[in-house]
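If you are new to this repository, start here. Below is one unmodified record pulled from the training split, so you can see the exact layout before writing a loader.
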Amino acid sequence: RRARDVLAGSAIFMVPMVGVGVLLAVLAFDRFDALDAVLGDRGYVGAESGFVFLAIALQSFTAHLIGAYTAGYLVRYQMGGSPRVWACVLAVVRHLPLLVVTWLLTHWWSLLLALWVINSDNAALAALAWLLPPFVGLASTSVLLVSPVIIGEGLGLRSIARAWRLVRTRFGAAYGFVCSCAILASLLFSFIAFLPPLAESTGLVTFGSYLWLVQGVTVQLALLIVVPFSALATAQLYLQIRVHAEGLDITMAADRAFGAT
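And here is the target side for that same chain:
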């Protein structure tokens, strides 16, 4: 019942990301072909890699913002309130400088990793393919709850340490959540993103020379669905960990009985 509010609020933060993604699709699949004689292979690869890195960085930061938005929405809803989209959006806007700083402090490794992956050859990636998923999973788990803590508890930069303390109490469950969420999100993303080629393979629909553009738009729509619901699941995990590790439900019951402290 609340999916519309989650998607509408998330879309506000995802507009720049979608715009860059569509621009990347246009440049990568259309414009560069006409500039090969001018740029050559080196210019093509350099410009394309730059836009890919920009898209990855923007997607990561957007996911951080959406994590904060969905956490604010879900916490208010689970606490018995009636959250409104614009109230939760404004809460994220008020915390925007803090969210930028915490994103840089907790995701710098992902930017370096993305830069390395983009500029590596296939042989190097194949050699380390078995090391990357566990490392990324562990690193992501360690900073998983930063956005929910920022919005839910208002601790400033101390939110990073607070998020780690929460995760540490249930690290196995949090790591399993990250792996499961990544697998399910990848499956859902792939299903939505590859709908145009699948539809064209049936012969009932043909996109002709515009398949690349339809594919680029579909990928952004897939992100618009996958990212908010992954963030919503993370916010729910935040509340569940607080219930199991800190007795949040008992605290709430005591506040209702004796007044909040």
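Two things worth knowing about this chain: The chain has a mean pLDDT of 81. The radius of gyration is 21 Å.
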